[in-house]
Every structure is written in structure tokens, then in C-alpha cells.
Amino acid sequence: MEERWPWEAEASLEAGDPLAHQRHEESIKEELPRVVKLLPVQGTVMGSSSPHQTGDIVCYDILKRAPVFDLTSHYSDIQPKAPARGAHRHISAPTLFCLSGRGWEINDGKTYSFGTYDMLVVPPFTIHQHGGDEEAGCQIFVPQSRLFSLMGLTKREQIKFGDNPKFHDGTEPLRNEQGKLIGYRIKKGVLGIKEDIDVMLGADQKTEGVFRSRKEATLWEGPVENTYDSYLKLFHD
Fold this sequence. Notes:
Radius of gyration: 23 Å
Largest sheet: 8 strands, antiparallel
Number of strands: 13
Number of helices: 4
Strand content: 25-35%
């Protein structure tokens, strides 16, 4: 048999391993240090969840603890009669899966209700806030890929705090001259942070300007001469 026709070899008639690639990836993963369980749920400035013990995912790039750690996956445990959570906005589009109970989601001013085993997808860069039913509460799991971190898409804007925010060890409130709460500080030393990180309330003007330009874009008027032009036209459309 010539090398040009390897499929004629007897061995090639045998079925290959359809999961060979997955087994290879699994073997590599087993050799790496990793976090195999999410951090324990506890109270934070965003409510009771995991692993938001530092308060905000804006600092996850600094808080990496293993190569395959799913940086933004977390559980949210919203107890009955819990104070309303804060509103925030981010570029990524998270998927929220309700494990138990029922609750609500406010997205750019419109309210949606959900129950056990419902799945919600939050559109990118929309102001949203979620909470549990007054009587039943809810448990939410938010699976996210660490690819968002690698692409720099984990940035989040804290639009407003929830009712009665609590600042635990490692975080402290920031107030203006009138005593109004304007943000909080994640202190140096928390999970290896080498300097303080300030998380301020309100929109990031640079990011908001980028998304505002997209929304205000007019219809594409020029000729579509190449692939790049076709993608630009899609943005305008």
C-alpha cells in the first residue's frame, strides 16, 4: 500500500475512538491545579452568593487562582424576604438558571417573572436587577466561560446598590463629602490583591459611549466590497 492511500490499511477499517479529543483534554486538565468546587455561599455587597465574596467581578483578572477556574460562575441564594439586590450592567450575556423557588428580573425597566427550571439570558449591556419571590425566594446558578475573562469582557458597572448593602472583611464603603454612598473599596491583601481596587457606582463613560454609538448608527449607505464591509453593514443593520 502506498502512503497516498492510508485508508486502505487493515487497521483503518477499525472504528476509532470518537471521544479521543475529549479524553486528551481531560488528561491535560487532570494535570493542572484547579478549583473543583465553587467557594461557599456567603453574604456580600451584592447579596448572598458565591464566589462574589470580594463584592464584584471587575477584579477577577487579579483574583485568578487556577488556570481552569470558571471565573464568573456562581450560585446566588436569595432567601425569602431578602432585601432587593443592586442593579448592574456588563458586556457579557449571562445565562441564569433557576434551581428552585421563583423570582423576578428587571431588564432596562421591563420586569420578567421566572420559576424553577426556567432559564434567563440577559442581553449584553443592559441594566438589570434580579431578586427572589417574597415568600419562596430562589436559588440561581450562573454558568460562565472563562473565555469572557480572556477577552476582557468581565467588566461590570454597578449602577446602584441593593437595599441595606453589607460590607464584610476586606471591603469598605466609599462616601462623598455629604456622606452619600458612592462605591466601595476592595482592600489590598484580599485573595492576593496587591493594591486597593475602588468599585464606583454609575456608568463608565467610555464604555457607554461605545455602545451609544452602536445604537445611534444609521443604515449602511456605502458599497459592500469585501467581508469587512459586510460585517460593518451588519452592525449598522
